[in-house]
Structures are given as C-alpha cells and as structure tokens.
User: Fold these one by one.
Assistant:
Number 1:
Amino acid sequence: MKPLLIAGPCAAESEQQLLETARQLHEIVFVHNWELAFFRAGVWKPRSNPDSFAGMGEKALPWLARVQRECGFAVCTEVMTPEQVALCERYDIHTLWIGARTGVDPIAVQQLADAVKSKPFTILVKNPMVPDVKLWAGNVERFLKANVKQVMAVHRGFADSNENVYRNAPCWNIPIDLKVQYPDLPILCDPSHLCGHTRWIPQIAQLALVYGFDGLMLECHPQPDQALSDADQQVTPRQWEEIIESLVFKNNVPNRELIKQRALLENVDTQLSELLARRFQIVDEIARIKKENNLPVVQPQQWQQVCKRYLKPGQDIQYQEFIEEFLQILHLHSIKKQQS
Ligand code: PEP
Ligand code: MN
C-alpha cells in the first residue's frame, strides 16, 4: 500500500503562493499517478515568539477553498478554537489538524471535539509537545468519541530541553505504542517539524515507513528561503517529488514487537550520538582551560578514578570489558584532540 501523502506550505502567505504550490504539486502527482490525500496550509499559526508571523487568519480561508476547487485537493488547516472550526466549515474545509501546542490542553481539545461532533470532519491529531502517550491517546479518544468521519494521528516529534540533532525528539516508541493501542488508527509522520531542517527529512521519512507509518505530512513551499515561517524545513515541490520518489515502500506486515524494540534502540542511539557530540564540546573546553593554566593534557590518576566509577563489581564480565574498551577509545580520542 502506498503511503498517504499530505503536502503544502507551513503557512498560507498569499493567494498566489498557495496556488503556485498547489499547481506545482498537482502537476507532479499527475505525472506520477500519485494521490495527494490532503493539501496543507496553516492559517492561524501558534508561534513561540509574539513578533513572529502568526498566519493570515480568516482571510486565507477563501484561498484554501480556491485550491480545493481548482486543483481538486482536499485541503487541511490547523484549528485551536471552536470559532475557527466554524469558520473552516463555512469555507467547506473539512480536514483539520490539532497542533502539538493545543494537544497539551485537554480542555481546549475537548472543546474542539465538541465543535466537530457528529460532523463529516477528518481530524489529524498531532502528538502533544510532551512525550506522553496517554495524553496523545486521550486526545485521539476525544475525537473518536465525537464520532467524526475519520481520525488520524500525526507524529511530529517531542519538545526536549536537550540540544538535539533534530528540532524535536523522535521518541519512536511513543507513536508505535499508540499504534499498538489503536491498530486501526492511521498514523502519519511529519518529518518537517520533527527534523526542523530539510537535510534530515529523507532519512526520517524512510525510517517512518520502515516502522510501518501510514503516511507522510511534509511542508512544501515554492521558495522556502523566503517562507515567513519554518523556512529551514520546507522543501520545494521538486524536492518533495525527489523525496517521495526515493522512498522504498514495503507491503509486508511489520512485526510490531520487533519494531518496538528497534524504535527503542534508535532512541538510545540518537541519544548516544548526541551525548558524544556534547562530550567532544566539553573536551574542547577542558583543553582550552588546561592550555591557559599550563596544565598537562594527561592526568592519569584522574582518568583511573573515572574508569573505576563506571565499572561496578558483579556486572557481566563481557559488558565490563566492553565499557572498559569504550572508555579507552574515548580517552585516547580526547587526548589526541587536546594535543592537536
Ligand atoms: C504545523 O503543522 O504547521 C504546526 C504548527 O505543527 P505542530 O503543531 O506540529 O508544531
Ligand atoms: Mn510549520
């Protein structure tokens, strides 16, 4: 089965920008005989900085309606309040997403669920900012109970106070847990918000498919460097085409238990590589301090004490040997770096 595709700009900036994106995407999907399930564009943008572009608001809704009419795409946008739901309904926009920021507020989510109750809406529930599968599942449940046309989940990564490679931490085990709880719920991945930069998008998109995700939401802008929001993570329609073309789809039913363990391993490996990068930065600082104070690079006693702290008696001998070897490599590397 082909993944479900959603593409479009982070935000609707002008009628012309929306139509240009939609027309280019239309041509691409036509040539490849693909299907764009939804064209996305944010109209109300929840931004951290109050001076950032906050979306064009209501006046962008007729532009979205025009894309829907002229390109035949179903369009979707983010809503945070019941009033916004009513406005979308007025413009015949029946696919709405619940953003990661709204997702941390159960009262707001319930108000939205009440606003769409028993209506023919498709609701995309993004994961909340915090890595809490119960909160995400609770939000999904509110819309399932509201008896809308369809509910889907979207994994866009989680806020994390550490400095990460990605804008948001993937925590793959969380969407996979959600899938175990709701086997019939389609789960898409949004590599754009997860990565925060286009350079990681192809690999995250592919990984999501390997983990059995049902589709991909990608931000796509005709001139990403001029985008009014999320410029670093938006691809051009042509780049979008290349990414989708490069993906390998497999039809075999994934082994959920294996996938879950792999996802946990992937989380650990991501953390390990980030920790190592941070360690190297600290080593650079230490080198600078030693140099300024004329201290020797190698301080054997200090290092022996560090090793002792990590080697605990009673641990599996193979594990101990591995840790010892690993620490030696790290130490040698640090010495080389400090001497260079
Ligand atoms: C978006 O999709 O444009 C958006 C703001 O999403 P999120 O809630 O995932 O940050
Ligand atoms: Mn965005």
Number 2:
Amino acid sequence: MTISHNVSLKPFNTFGIDAKANSYCNITSIEDLQKVLKTESQKPLFILGGGSNMLLTQNVNALVLHINLKGKEIVEETEDKVIVKAMAGENWHEFVLWCLKNGYGGIENLSLIPGNIGTAPIQNIGAYGVELKDVFVSCEAVNIKDQSLRTFSKNDCNFGYRESIFKQDLKGEYIITSVNLQLTKHNHTLHMDYGAIKQELENSNSTKPTIQDISKAVIAIRESKLPNPKDIGNSGSFFKNPIVSTEHFNRLKENFPEIPSYKISDSEVKVPAGWLIEKAGFKGKRFGDYGVHNKQALVLVNYGNANGKDIFELAQLIQKTIKRLFEIDIETEVNII
Ligand code: EPU
C-alpha cells in the first residue's frame, strides 16, 4: 500500500474532470484500509468509489482513499433465494450481469447504472420502479475514527429517495466495505410498469419476459437517453426530481397543462426535473466543452476538457431559472466537491 502525491483523478470520475488529488492511496483490503485510517484519520480524507456521482470543481486537498475492494460470494442460499455479498469496489453493472448469468433476480431494472457496489447504498440508487433498498439486506462499513467494522441492517440505513443515513447523520463517518443483497432464484417479481419498459418489451415481442429480457430493455432505454461516460463525461441525473405541494402543482398545471407528475401522497407530487429543464430551454444547449445532454435534460455533460467550475455555474444558472419560472427549488443529486 503506497501513498502517491499530485495524482490526476480524471480516470476515476465519470465526468472526466481533470482535478488533482494532493495524496492518493489505492485500497485493496479491509486491513489496509484500517491501517491507513489508523495513521491518517486526523488528516482530511476523501473517499472515492466509482466516481460516478460527483463533480470536481477544484483540486482535492486531501488524502484520496480509492476503495477497490473486490470479490463476491453467496453467504446464504435456500431453495428460492440467495444472499450475495459483494465487496465495495465491484462495478455495479458487472455485478448485475453476473447475477443475471446465475439466474438471480431483483436488480435487473438497475442495469447499466454507473458506479460501484459500495456507493449504491449511499444514495439508494434507483431506476425504472426499483430501488436498491428493495433487495438490500445489510452492509458492512469501517468507522473512520476508530476503524471498527460495523454491520448496518436495512432499517439502520434510513433509506429514502436517493437518500440514506450515509448522506445524512453519518455523513463522513463510515466507509462501506461490502453489501449483502437478497435475490430470487425463481418466481422473480418483475417490475414492468414503467411505460418505457412496457414499450421496449412490446417492441421486442417479449410476451413472457424473463429477468434477462427486462435487463436488455433497461439497457436499450438507458443507451437511448443517457450518454455513456466512456464517450461523453457525465454523472447521470445531475438533479433530483423535486417534490411540490399539490396546490403548487395545480397552479403550475394551469399554465402548463402537459406537465408530467407522479403522485407521492394526497398532498405532494413529484415533478420530473428533466421536463422543467427542457421547458426552460436548456435541453441540448452546449457551451464550449460542456452542456446539457440533448436526449435527457437532467444530465449535464463534459464533451472533452470542461472544468468542473464551469459545469457547476451552469447548474446554478439552471437552478435559478427553474426557480424563476416555476417557483421550484431543484437540488443537485450529484455531490459537488
Ligand atoms: N422529460 C422531459 N425532458 C427531458 C427528460 C425527461 O420532458 O429532457 C420527462 C419525460 O418525458 C418523462 C419524465 O420527464 O415524462 C421522466 O423522465 P425519465 O423517465 O427519463 O426519468 P427521470 O425522472 O428524468 C429518473 C431517475 C433516473 C432513472 C429514471 C428511470 C432521478 C433524479 N433520476 O429520471 O436516474 O434512470 O428516472 O427510472 O430520479 C440517475 O439517478 O442518475 C438516473 C439516471
């Protein structure tokens, strides 16, 4: 285990921003993680997973701990179910594909989400009607201060929409090292209500879809809307979908009858931020090396050598415009560093 200095983080963030880490350490075992924390935990630390949910607006003046713990194993198995333990540094989508190859169902709707296993619980990743919490059993995490290893049950994690205790009360206190998920071996519960999935399955004539068919449909939808970070730097949805009161929504509907929405409760409605941003005229707008994706306005993109500050300023301009036009505050989903 070595600590290097002045390391470019460009290969380690899906936005492809060329910011530098003051110091950098590649972590491949829990023991090494505990060792480095023991000597360095007083210094500023920056925990890096798949780098798929952050925008670097400056150099990172800290010791970057790059969590590359690998491995997956079945820890419990019955006739119908398995509990799989996956280490934090495993790539999420490769893990989904491995599950599908083994016939394990539950996360097929979460195909092609960028990032690693270890960061999935932090924001309770979700797509097409499924969230991580639906299959989550527990995770293990190292306490940064005293290096103890703690198990968090699903209940402990306080999952919400793109939320968990790791973003709230315990922010900056733990490093997730592995996640246990419960998956089905047969009689899978298929989630196909999402309009685009239905459509995609119809197009491919899947009358009795399998978990593999659903994964293929999700991959096709994502590839048609979301840029692949290998080609165009991005962090998926840059903003969260805002939740507004039903009264506020009804007022908006008078001016914009076509506004889409999802009912949350009798008093609250979720509005797609992508629609608001498109309506505000930002969709497909390009400013030099950065801009708003032309197929999904919720995604900000780096076409080459954009710097994080410029992208952040664009994000702020979008927030101000949405506030002015719709009286809605949209929060970033991506962590701004
Ligand atoms: N829309 C527009 N213009 C746009 C984008 C969207 O009008 O440019 C409208 C669509 O027509 C649709 C609605 O907004 O009526 C919803 O769009 P979409 O189905 O693309 O989903 P989303 O709400 O924009 C969320 C997640 C995505 C996830 C999809 C599918 C958030 C912040 N984003 O996007 O998650 O893949 O649903 O479940 O909740 C991510 O978190 O990185 C991510 C990509």
